[in-house]
Specification:
This is Cytochrome c domain-containing protein. The protein is mostly helical. The chain is built from five helices and no strands.
Length: 101
């Protein structure tokens, strides 16, 4: 988390203009890990001229296990929801679909 996410999502005043606070993200609170894993893998691309901030994807930088660990950490740290079910299977399915190692 510290190396990939904290600079934009730490909740500090310096990061407030960068990324959505993770406790406010629907992906953090969703029943399925699918959207959160998609964000971690592929980021968020914006159309030209959009007022929001894009997010890089980390598919080529993180292993599947690191993606699963990161999603589990975000869920535990920024949500009162129970752990994601079938998290490893979700990561593997989405990584396979994207042709990732």
């Amino acid at each position: 988390f510290a190396g990939a996410c904290a600079s934009c999502h730490s909740g500090s005043p310096a990061s407030a203009s960068q990324g959505l606070p993770l406790e406010k993200s629907g992906a953090t609170h969703a029943e399925s890990a699918r959207n959160l894993v998609q964000f971690i893998l592929h980021g968020r691309q914006l159309p030209p001229g959009a007022a929001s901030v894009a997010m890089p994807g980390f598919a080529r930088l993180l292993t599947r296990q690191q993606v699963a660990d990161l999603a589990a950490y975000i869920r535990a740290r920024y949500s009162n929801e129970p752990p994601f079910q079938q998290l490893d299977a979700t990561v593997n399915e989405l990584a396979d679909r994207a042709g990732l190692p």
